[in-house]
Amino acid sequence: MSDSLADGRTFRTLNVIDDFNREGLWIEVDTSLPASRVTRVLDRIAEERGYPSRLRCDNGPEFIAGRMAEWADAHEVRLDFIEPGKPAQNAYIERFNRTFREDVLDAYLFTTLREARQIAAGWLEDYNGVRPHAALGDLTPLEFAAVNSATVHL
Predict the structure, then answer these.
(1) What is the pLDDT of residues 21-71, one digit of tens each?
(2) What percent of the chain has pLDDT over 90?
(3) SS3 of residue 6 by DSSP
(4) Residue 11 in 3-state DSSP?
(5) Alpha carbons within 13 A on the beta-carbon side of 12
(6) Distance of alpha carbon 140 from its chain centroid, rounded?
(7) 20 phi/psi in degrees, rounded to 5
(8) Are 68 and 94 in contact (CB under 8 A)?
(9) What is the mean pLDDT of the chain?
(10) What is the rounded CA–CA span in Å between residue 2 and residue 9?
(11) 102-131 pLDDT, tens per residue?
C-alpha cells in the first residue's frame, strides 16, 4: 500500500497476514520496500513462527524479483501469485488492507515515518487482540488461534 506524509513524501506499507486466523503479522513502513527488505521482514516473522509452506502475493516488483524467488527456494516456500487484476484471489489481505486504509492511512496526517510506524503498530495490536472479527465467530485473531490450537502459518 502507499500513502504520503504531510510534506508530500510518499511511503509504502508491506502488510503481512495469516490466512488461517486473519492475524496481522507485521506492517512494515518505509519509503521503499524492495525484495531484499521484504525477505528480511519475512525472515524476522519466521524466527518466531517458522517459514510458511506457501505465501500468497500479488505481482508487485518486490515479489517477482529474483531475490524473492531465491529466498522462497532457500526456505522451501511456494510463492502463489494471484492473477493480475484479480484481487479477489487474495481476499483476506484485500479486506485487511481496506480496514487499514480506513482506520489508519485515511484517518491520520503523518508528519514522519516514525509516527506512521508507531500508529500502525498500535493499530495492529488492537486489530489482533481487541477487535472481534465476524468471520472468526466474533473472536479476535489471537483468540481464534488459541481456541483452534493451530500452528500459525504465514
Answers:
(1) 999 999 999 999 999 999 999 999 999 999 999 999 999 999 988 999 999
(2) 84
(3) coil
(4) strand
(5) 9
(6) 17
(7) -65, -55
(8) no
(9) 93
(10) 11
(11) 999 999 999 999 999 999 999 999 999 999
Angle (nearest 5°) at CA 28 between 23 and 34: 125
- C-alpha cell, 125: 495490536
Cα 71 from Cα 114, distance rounded (Å): 28
Give the DSSP H or E segment for 4: strand 2-4
DSSP letter for each residue of 29-64: EES---HHHHHHHHHHHHHHH---SEEEE---HHHH
Which amino acid would we find at residue 74?
Answer: A
User: What count of other Cβ atoms lies within 10 Å of the Cβ of residue 117?
Assistant: 17
Taking residue 154's Cβ as centre, other Cβ atoms within 10 Å add up to 22
Reading phi first (left if > 0) and then psi (alpha if -120 to 50, else beta), residue 16 is in beta
Question: Could you tell me the pTM of the whole model?
Answer: 0.91
Strands 54-57, 78-81: pairing is parallel
Say if residues 15 and 1 touch (Cβ distance below 8 Å).
yes
Question: φ, ψ for residue 76 (rounded to 5)?
Answer: 55, 45
